[in-house]
Amino acid sequence: MERDWVRHALTRKVKSKSARSKEKILVIEPDVKVVYAVKFAIAMLASLSAVEIAHLAILGTWNSEVFSAITGLVGTVTGIFLGQKA
Prior knowledge:
Elements: H1 5-10, E1 12-16, E2 24-28, H2 32-59, H3 64-85
Antiparallel strand pairs: 1-2
């Protein structure tokens, strides 16, 4: 299994079309900053989910501010993955 699964998930493979040679598959690696940003967003998503679960368990109420932050991070991470594969 790939060790750095975020980098592997963001790596694009493009077929090269050349009249003189066979088709080649070009591997385009993502920028290091994008990989770190996605890792940070995933870590924050896990942390905020833990905060929301703790808030529910201890206080017994739903925290809409934490949930909106979770929703925003999910949208950001999904957008990065979908935009990078295009």
